Amino acid sequence: MQRTLLLTAASSLILAGCMGSSSDNTKDSAASYRAVPAWSDGNVSVLNTDGTADDLLTGASLDVTTGAVSPVAVSTASDHAEIRRYQLGNNYRSMMDPVTPGGWGVHWGPLVTEGIQSHSVENFTGVVTGVEYATAVDSGDGRTNVRLVVQIPSSFNVEAPCLIAGPSSGSRGVYGAAGTAGDAALKRGCAVAYTDKGTGDGVHLIGSDEVLTLDGKMTDAAAAGIQSAFTADYAEGFRETTDARTATTKHAHSQQNPGKDWGLNTLQSIEFAFYALNQAYPETAMHPDNTTVIAASWSNGGRSVLMAAEQDSKGLIDGVVAVEPSTAMAESQFTIIQGSNSWGPDSVGWSLYDMHAFGAMYQTCANNLTANAAADLTNAAKSPERCNRLKQLGLLSSDSDDLQVLAQEAQDLMNTTAGLLPEQNLATPAFSSVFSEITNTYANSYGRYRISDELCGISFASYNGNTKQFETLSAEDKALRFLGQNMIAGGSRWIQPVNMKAADPYAATAFNSTADHNLDADLCFFAMSQYGHDKLSELGILDTYKQNGDFERVQGGIQEAMMSGDLQGKPTVILHGRSDQVVAPNHGGRAYYARNRQLAKQDNVVYWEVENGHHLEMFGYLLAPNLGFYADPSDMKHRYGYIHPYFEQALDQMFAHLKEGTALFPSQVIRTTPMLESGLESITDSMFGEVHQQPGADQILWSENTLTIPD
């Protein structure tokens, strides 16, 4: 049964006086959480799940016999409940390797509880009954919003209440952390608080002037009103003159710079969770003083929980677990050393945008290096033309015309100037397109551009992921294609960047690294990065590629989202995979930990670096033959380790630390053994090295503004 609470304008005004924003400098009592937060859009839905037709963990998508999660297909005729279950099930399996002979059903998955020690639910069946509350934060412009969902399992213990806040990873929808924070919380009998942090399910198909609504439908933009997940703003006459396939997403073109509010949105999700808990248990007063609250998530969600801890002036958060966080440090005057490699202040702590703008410029040249283990991949973008153009522009300095010499210089620049680790070189070639996809989306987002601005000549369009052609979506496919997707343009299967300077922008081959117009676009985005702006100025060619004011707009947006490293004394475990092919550790976990040590000297903040761990472990088997994870595409042995079991250990240690005062294990490198090295045919316990209370030679050390990582 679902019911919706509608607030009148008068009651909203009353509530505004009852509950302030997350910036208030007072810790709220339980009474403060009896009212709907003032920043809510005024609509709160309540859904009770029975474990048969629906549940909180996978949306009744679980086969309790096999452990498989298979969301029931939906159609344009599906109702909100069916669409919600589909989104929840898809998101649950989007953050962990979902196939065999991977670790699904053994080391992770809905039926796995082994290794979970704190607050574990006895006789866990993988099906979670309980209640779900949902609302949205109105941005105030009537065109976009931030979604919040709180789930409270029937196993919730009011005598020892606990809550895990899990903002979505990437640019996923509100259930984007279902397979990480949601899985961890519900198996422990904790409530979970989700937010899409303003980047999730929000699509506007400009050509047909349709938008995705909050209940997962596609409808006319004018008729959607506040039910629209995102309605784009664009120049007058743009829709009539653009191609019918033009489309855009909430993250890219909301003009809200949502990244600056990821911490705030996480705090709002916690406030909403306390409202929900006090509604679900009106006889029990729950508030931050008597409830254990851990903010825990991955990737952009990992960044969000760190930002929330920095901004938490009301004492909402007790502890933090951040995995693979993308960070942007306001100060990075320190050095990081690993073995014989050293990176100084100019090569650490970059924003995700600055890092990817550099990669978009150089990686497709570096891919030509035959010494690169992934160089023979047919799907890896390799461009001899890019190497030659970089040399002509002065962005490569070698006097040689030999392709291998130029490719080696490009690779060296990636590993020195841009701070990428040698361990990242293996998988990065297969993800070359990610660099441009990130810069396209994030530059528009940080600079608050409209789709009609076509920044650097790039637009976005709806895309048929099967025929590899841009096309107008069919009525049957419109809404369904976007549900639960990671809405990075290019990262989503259905929204792709379009280079308007191509002869045919919508041709399948129009957006590729070998075309001059795409190099020009990459140079334009490069000119908006800190390093690129300085380098192109040094070469005297900045004016050729910059657009007036764009550098200031984009970097101004990044500055709004900068991180201090001050966690206000909150205990924190930061994890990062050494082979991360999306977020370089030197610009993520390493940089954040170093700045925290430099600024706050917190002994209760630790950094665990997982040897062989990588960013997209959900693809370990699912897509590995296409991504270069195997020595032989016919062989199921790969070169990588997994982070997920260490995420669970970090949560167990955090709960023990908060409740019993047990010290967190020190900063260290966690050694793992990939299948390729071990000779194993499937993922087994022997792959996962221990987290040590006394790590010895594997301990990560901080001294005299230098972070030393064991090789």
UniProtKB/TrEMBL annotation:
Pfam families: 3HBOH. The keyword Hydrolase applies. The keyword Hydrolase applies. One of its GO terms (biological process) is butyrate metabolic process. One of its GO terms (cellular component) is extracellular space. It comes from the Bacteria. Keywords: Hydrolase. One of its GO terms (molecular function) is hydroxybutyrate-dimer hydrolase activity. Signal peptide: none annotated. This is D-(-)-3-hydroxybutyrate oligomer hydrolase. It comes from Oceanospirillum sediminis.
